[in-house]
Amino acid sequence: MPLFEYICNKCHFRFDKMVPRWDAQVECPKCHGAVTKLMSSFAVHGSQKSAAAGIPDTAPKMCTNC
Fold this sequence. Notes:
mainly beta
């Protein structure tokens, strides 16, 4: 199940929730108000050890063009 980040339109509480599908109906766990799905960021962690050992780091890098 995907994990999405939401913010409540009423009380502005931010929370994460695992939902069975993209269009699942979600409400605020605090006030039961309507929520807005947020654009979540993510990071990719590369190995510093492999770069120091001369092994190329082939892990994807975070986009810097956005």
